[in-house]
Amino acid sequence: MKKISKILLNATALLTVCTLQSSALADTPEIKTGLYAPATAKYSKMFHNTDSFICMGTGSEACQSFVKGKKFTSEEKELVEGGYISGDLKFTKDKDSAEYSVSGSIHFIRICELGTGVFSKTDDTNEFESKSVKCRRNDDGSISCPFVNPDETEQGDAHAVFTFRPAGSNKLKISAQSVPGMDEIIQDGCLDSISDTLFEYETEEEYAHNMYVSSKLQFLMADDNLNRSWRELSKAQRDRLLAEQKKWVKEKDTKCGPVTKKGSEGELTKMYRCQYEMTNDKYFELASMRE
After folding, report:
1. Rounded mean pLDDT of 116-144?
2. Tens-place pLDDT, residues 164-214
3. Which residues contact 243 (CB under 8 A, 6 or more apart)?
4. Which long-range contacts (CB under 8 A, 24 or more apart) does 45-49 make?
5. E strands of 68-170, at which residues?
6. Whether the Cβ atoms of residue 174 and residue 89 lie closer than 8 Å to each other
7. What angle, 0 to 180 degrees and rounded to 10, lies between the N-to-C axes of helices 204-231 and 74-81?
8. How far apart are CA 221 and CA 165, in angstroms?
9. Whole-angstrom distance, CA of residue 163 vs CA of residue 141
10. Domains, the chain, ranges and CATH?
């Protein structure tokens, strides 16, 4: 990827980016450094991080089965019903130059993704790796930063420029515009939807709590899938597998800790993630046995 300074110069046809001396910006609002994510308040203030649990947005049969007849807390409802926009943006600021940098990515209904990283194929994982990119400070106190579509990183240049402006206490409003010549590689509706979403400052404690609730829901959905898959087996199959299934449950609880375990949210998050991974693997194993 070309140097960020060159990337932003390529975007000047869209955005006028002005670099001013810090003294001239003394009266403009400052963007607080740290983590930002979309947050809603339909039921409670829960952040929609990249790794937050999402169910209803998928519209899948498994999701409908999971939700049916269940009662959720207000926080769980917020994540179960989901948001169209999720993401994590981390802002840092150089102490000497006062320049901002940002890292992270934004998802639109888990289909469109724009971020500051690139795909790495070194491990054949095609995994999105966030990295920090430098931003430019504008004369109104906003900052403009280059983002890419990770599916199209061979283009080299930025695909969009995001401008972040303070919007009240610890909130950011985003203006998103494609770089000239790059609009065809950004899915329709992505930029407009992102521009309608407020990102809010999220403390480490709030993020950790979000991951606790998400990991619990993720396990519960996997457990629901497993039970449904078990019921779909023939009686002869269930009879043959019952002893093995009971043994597996004991092994899972020994390795992960039982779901009735007491402890801190951090400890329970670790337990739920372990329970989810083992339960999800067993679900796919049983699903492959259906006659």
Report:
1. 76
2. 999 888 999 999 888 887 767 777 778 888 887 899 999 999 999 999 999
3. none
4. 46/75, 46/78, 46/79, 46/210, 46/213, 47/200, 47/202, 47/206, 47/207, 47/210, 48/79, 48/82, 48/83, 48/85, 48/86, 48/87, 49/86, 49/87, 49/88, 49/202, 49/207, 49/210, 49/211, 49/214
5. 85-93, 100-108, 112-115, 118-120, 127-129, 133-134, 136-137, 143-147, 160-166
6. no
7. 70
8. 38
9. 10
10. 4-48+83-202 (no CATH), 206-287 (1.20.1270)
Q: What is the Cα–Cα distance from 79 to 48, expressed in whole angstroms?
A: 7
DSSP 33-81: PEEEEEEE-SSS-EE--TTS---GGG--HHHHHHHTT----HHHHHHHH
Structure tokens at 278: 């083992």
pTM: 0.83
